Amino acid sequence: MPGDRPTQLRQQQRIKLPDAIIAATALTESLPLVTRNAKDFQNIAGL
């Protein structure tokens, strides 16, 4: 379920909720993630 994706990312990667929502949206919608803060997303597979 797409709404569970941010929760899963937070539990697995220990990231902040806003970052988890951004990452989950990019993954769910198959979109590239463009950020100036790459270190927060570096351990998330598929980004």
Descriptive keywords:
47 residues, mainly alpha, 2 helices
Task: Record the SSE blueprint.
Layout: H1 5-13, H2 17-28
Helix pairs in contact: 1-2
InterPro entries: PIN-like_dom_sf, PIN_dom
Protein name: PIN domain-containing protein
Pfam families: PIN (PF01850)
In short:
This protein is an all-alpha fold and 47 residues long.
Number of strands: 0
- Helix-strand pattern: HH
Give the terminus-to-terminus CA distance: 19 Å
Radius of gyration: 10 Å
Low-pLDDT segments, ≥5 res: none
- Average residue-wise pLDDT: 87
Net shape = globular
Protein name: PIN domain-containing protein
Organism: Synechococcus elongatus PCC 11802
Domain PIN: 9-46
InterPro entries: PIN-like_dom_sf, PIN_dom
Notes on the structure:
Helix content is 45%, strand content 0%. The relative contact order is 0.20. The protein is globular. The longest helix is centred in the middle third of the chain and has 12 residues. The two termini are 19 Å apart. The chain has one domain. It is mainly α.
